[in-house]
């Protein structure tokens, strides 16, 4: 997530839908938001709750900020209409068979004029992973589809959102997953996979200039994720209805990756 594009103001209500281990939720908390970390996995949420507590004790978030976890289903979220100022849905829609129902829920709980950021695996790196390993995408709870950016945007526009822009991220991560798919997705002890993982951890912790520059070059080409930013119209108008969305999807197919 690029927080220069997705600016979070202290005091805003922000939902991290499908928060997983909580990486984005923790950053939102540091930025002073009232954060709800939402997920179906109770074990993941228990870890997120512990980290929220540790952050409070360490003074890593402003005193007026709040953070809590909520367990539930993305298809029927337990929140009022027009409740959140901003929503992040990172690497979650590709896991949900009825993705458009989940998109309608995102629209419902977001305030008019609010902002949504969605990330999914980018088409080309994901297609290579699927070609290299069946286990990568057939495991329970795994990915059920590969989005093109055009498809993702068209579906969310059909739901009622407006597109604000996009970029790619994690260019250094794609080769790691290709290695994992080639040697076995559960083979964490393979020397090549292990060495590349150590490189990624070092890069995340140290953020040295050479790898930052390399990722900047690689992101548009093989970025593992595509990040798309949306708004919910403040005037109640909906951009995507029936044939309009279909026409948009057709026009954007050439710009799919």
UniProtKB/TrEMBL annotation:
<dbReference type="InterPro" id="IPR029063">
    <property type="entry name" value="SAM-dependent_MTases_sf"/>
</dbReference>
<dbReference type="Pfam" id="PF08241">
    <property type="entry name" value="Methyltransf_11"/>
</dbReference>
<dbReference type="InterPro" id="IPR050447">
    <property type="entry name" value="Erg6_SMT_methyltransf"/>
</dbReference>
<dbReference type="InterPro" id="IPR013216">
    <property type="entry name" value="Methyltransf_11"/>
</dbReference>
<keyword id="KW-0489">Methyltransferase</keyword>
<keyword id="KW-0808">Transferase</keyword>
<feature type="compositionally biased region" description="Low complexity">
    <location>
        <begin position="238"/>
        <end position="248"/>
    </location>
</feature>
<protein>
    <submittedName>
        <fullName>Class I SAM-dependent methyltransferase</fullName>
    </submittedName>
</protein>
<feature type="domain" description="Methyltransferase type 11">
    <location>
        <begin position="15"/>
        <end position="117"/>
    </location>
</feature>
<dbReference type="GO" id="GO:0032259">
    <property type="term" value="P:methylation"/>
</dbReference>
<feature type="region of interest" description="Disordered">
    <location>
        <begin position="238"/>
        <end position="257"/>
    </location>
</feature>
<dbReference type="GO" id="GO:0008168">
    <property type="term" value="F:methyltransferase activity"/>
</dbReference>
């Amino acid at each position: 997530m690029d927080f220069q594009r997705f600016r979070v103001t202290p005091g805003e209500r922000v939902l991290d839908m499908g928060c997983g281990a909580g990486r984005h939720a923790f950053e939102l908390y540091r930025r002073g938001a009232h954060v709800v970390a939402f997920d179906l996995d109770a074990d993941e949420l228990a870890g997120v709750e512990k980290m929220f507590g540790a952050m409070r004790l360490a003074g890593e978030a402003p005193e007026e900020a709040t953070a809590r976890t909520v367990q539930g289903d993305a298809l029927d979220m337990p929140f009022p209409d027009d409740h959140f100022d901003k929503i992040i849905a990172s690497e979650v829609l590709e896991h949900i068979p009825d993705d458009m129902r989940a998109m309608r829920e995102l629209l419902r709980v977001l305030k008019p004029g609010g902002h949504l950021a969605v990330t999914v695996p980018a088409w080309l790196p994901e297609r290579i992973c699927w070609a290299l390993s069946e286990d990568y995408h057939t495991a329970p709870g795994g990915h059920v589809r590969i989005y093109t950016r055009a498809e993702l945007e068209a579906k969310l526009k059909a739901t009622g959102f407006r597109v604000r822009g996009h970029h790619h991220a994690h260019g250094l991560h794609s080769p790691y997953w290709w290695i994992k798919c080639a040697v076995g997705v559960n083979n964490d002890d393979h020397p090549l996979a292990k060495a590349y993982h150590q490189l990624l951890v070092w890069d995340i912790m140290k953020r040295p200039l050479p790898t930052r520059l390399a990722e900047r070059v690689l992101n548009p080409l093989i970025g593992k994720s595509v990040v798309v930013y949306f708004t919910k119209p403040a005037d109640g108008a909906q951009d995507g209805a029936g044939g309009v969305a279909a026409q948009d999807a057709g026009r954007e197919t050439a710009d799919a990756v």
